[in-house]
């Protein structure tokens, strides 16, 4: 298929990508080109600088308009975000981005895309999205370079090109969330579809080494963030499913990969259920307590219920099988500083401390997956009435916990993590960069009885909270509220103890104010 604007063969994105960005590129360049002359001393971060970064604390936030704007933004961006997303613990593309960035050329699409994202994020931390960012102009450059590179067989199948599309998707996702720019959400989906098209185009290259596999896992991870909002993503879900299964037995393993696999299974079930409900003729629908009861396609619905119950068991097993490095410790709220207790402690759940921020977020993402699974079970049970013996006859897994009781436990665990992921951060504080985070002192079990803090580097954790933890927690709590408000989620709101929903809403409002996210 040829690019409709440039006439080159486009093996990855197809016409949909070009149409989405052709006109916008011209507009962006015209609107922001006066800013481009201010970047007079831009250069690329070297491999040695990345090595040095690992031993440094984060520098002060750089000012957006300066002779070294690009370099300063990149330094700050990688120092903050590279530490928050370990690929082994999150499956995020941020975990492998530094290696590919270091190897990229200064003029490459990846270099331009990363620079645009770094400037955008730096701008958000400086001005909260209320000031123009040089990132727009550089983003436009990256789009043009990406189109040109797709016409070259050697580049179109490269890991660098696939990573470029993931970074471009992240840029538009940030714009949709914080800047509320028109069409950003749809462009984000377009970039993601381009990533999936490139996976298809790459074929066996997807499985050649650990890096390539990590990019497959990262693309799947990003798709999971979109699948819940758009039924059309079922096409992408099935494509990724086929690509993942073709890899044989050498695919990545570990808690993060397994967590995404469970979330991926649930996404397929959830989207099939939505499609089944949408395709049911109006005469086959009834309303019982605001829940649609489907009398057509009952066999498909029973199969979805059966698989959902089995998946709920798998989710519970995932938590019990975690390695020791993923362990967490509950502490008494009274041992934490008063500002943390007042800001982020839920009185009915002991605050939980984790080894790393990335582990805390991954465990919360898995809790959301299990909550969604329980929600799906509740929805299916409300739409069909099956005696217990028929459940067994159809191969349902037994001994799964009562959905509503388990949901309360999961929501409590999420609430218990709020302090660790957000500390005492509030909007309008005298020092907007400072945050106090919970920690504890432990004694090693190696026979030497040495004292150490948990997490190990409190200052680094505080920096990660500012960079990522606040939004991670905001996203998790928002999804909990969405499930509570979903009419298909049977009893989810009513089973939570009195005041818990109100407390969660208060935390969401706090984090929205801190992050300057407009409703």
Give a brief description.
With 519 residues, this protein is mainly alpha-helical. The chain has 22 helices and 6 strands.
Labels describing this entry:
globular, two-stranded antiparallel ribbon, about 525 residues, 6 strands, 2 domains, mainly alpha, disordered N terminus
Secondary-structure-derived class: mainly alpha
Task: Tell me the total number of β-strands.
Answer: 6
Question: What radius of gyration results from the CA coordinates?
Answer: 24 Å
Question: Which spans of ≥5 residues are poorly predicted at pLDDT below 50?
Answer: 1-12, 15-41, 283-291, 387-400
Range of strand content: under 5%
- Give the SSE order as H and E letters: HHHHHHHHHHHHHEEHEHEHHHHEEHHH
Helix proportion: 55-70%
Give the termini distance in whole angstroms: 40 Å
Shape from CA axes? globular
Strand order in the largest sheet: 1-2
Major sheet size, sense and barrel closure: 2 strands, antiparallel
| Overall average pLDDT | 80
Indicate how many domains the architecture comprises: 2
Number of discrete helical segments:
22
Walk me through the structure:
The chain is mainly alpha-helical and 519 residues long. It has helices at residues 15-36, 47-53, 69-81, 87-90, 97-103, 109-127, 135-150, 153-156, 159-179, 184-202, 210-227, 234-245, 255-278, 298-320, 338-344, 357-383, 388-393, 403-416, 418-422, 458-485, 492-495, 500-515; strands at 285-288, 291-294, 328-330, 352-354, 440-443, 451-454. β5 and β6 form a beta hairpin. α12 crosses α13, α13 runs antiparallel to α14 and α20 packs across α22 (500-515). The longest helix is centred in the last third of the chain and has 28 residues, at 458-485. The two termini are 40 Å apart. The model is unreliable at 1-12, 15-41, 283-291 and 387-400 (pLDDT under 50).
